[in-house]
Amino acid sequence: MDDRKPIVIVKDLNYRYDRDWVLKNIQLTVNKGDFLAIVGPNGSGKSTLLKLILGLLKIQQGEILLFGEPLERFRHWEKVGFVSQKANAFNKAFPATVFEVVRSGLTKRNGLFKPYPKTTVKKVIEALKAVQMEEFLYRNIGELSGGQQQRVFIARALIGDPELLILDEPTVGIDTKRVSAFYELMQKLNREKGITLIIVTHDTGIISKKVSHVACLNKHLYFHGNSSEFEQFDQKELSSFYGHEVKILTHDHQEGGME
Amino acid sequence: MIESLMKYEFLQNAFITGLLIGLIAPILGVFIVVRKQALIADALSHITLGGIAFSLLLGKFWSSFSTLNPVYGGMVFSVTGSLLIEKLRSVYKHYEELAIPIIMSFGIGLSVIFISMADGFTTDLFGYLFGSVSAVSRVDLLIVLGISMMVIVTIFFLYKGLFLLSFDEEHGRTMGLPSKTINFIFIVTVALVIAISMRIVGILLVSSLMTLPVASSIRIAKSFKQMIFLSVLFGEIAVIGGLISAYYLDLAPGGTIVVIAAFILLLVILYKNVQYKFQSGR
Q1: Residue B131 belongs to what domain range?
Q2: From which residue to which does any coiled coil extend (chain A) (predicted)?
């Protein structure tokens, strides 16, 4: 039973920018080992919810518990890995190697003010191996393709051995052929390393085959359940939730997207 | 030159100060440039000028202030300016870059008022504007030495945090990095270095010693560490070459240092163009 302990609990959460509510009465629990996909149209509050969970925005109403602790008191950020939506929008001319970028994931690990320990190189290589990018160790980050950069940022999040990994629209800018490979990598991390995953995505056509749970958010939480329950959520209901007609496009090998 | 260097204390002061500035200004410059804040150095140098002019004005009218080193006045104004920039950035969240022209024009405005009140342009002020080989005193050298050691220690301890905040500030904050504190320490450090660099490079040219060597290194560096190394190398070449030529040609060292730094940049750009043409077979 202990294995299913809650990692994230969101209670009665409301949030607004100026006068516009972007999140209303959100209740959500993510248990250890879950692979949760949060889907919803643009402006539905998905990224805001992630920012609130990550402590990047201040809670206005409601409560968030991380690893059982209220967010305001939570200090063990090394347990949380994050791959931002903006990760691919970094300054491409920044002259950093893949090694330097991945290593920066350990910035706070042995103390912010202490130099990196000697074991760092080994840890960087291990993290890069997990995303099949070890041969790019000393390449400049700006020279890599969007998909390769995304893997480097995942390695940066993995190097700190997080128990919870949060990814904000990680497949944006990655070609469709690579999307399936990306989800397989996530499944591997989820199953083999036992990492709890929360992913914000538009890949509605593929997620039910890849994740364990789905949450549909459009200011309110319309649906939260396991992926087989989500499959029952028919096209009509999905269209009504998105506010416009939605067609699930399923490609070969269950790759999918949304129109 | 070496004989003169051994003989004259003012030359020793100028060279050691130059070597220290050539080390720390490009190191800070690397972080300034990658954070796209290159103009901050300009804004702070102009507010520092206000501090220098204010110190000279005090010294002119009150004899008890005449012995006060204007570097201190420059440091106070520069650090205050850096704090104002941080404050203005939080006020104009969506127009953060506005803080720079505001502080820059405020600095020039103050300087003009103080210079006018001191009854015009003085020889002293010329040295502060464009640098001087002969004006660096032993006290100046000791101040520069103290600040340089402080900067090196600060960068050593903050390197990991500064790298992460420069590359991906949001990610740094999700890791629980004290980004505001690190940014605050960094900008105060920049302000101090600008204030102490003025004796050698001059207020109007100090920002170029923070940006030109970095502009050269960023074109050819393969890693962040290499960029720091190359920036320091180019900075030192510019300072040493600039001081030697200023001494022999009786010129203001600020000008010669910056012209050499610009020449290095030109060579790097040419090298990159030749390399690109060679690689693409054109």
Answers
A1: 2-272
A2: none
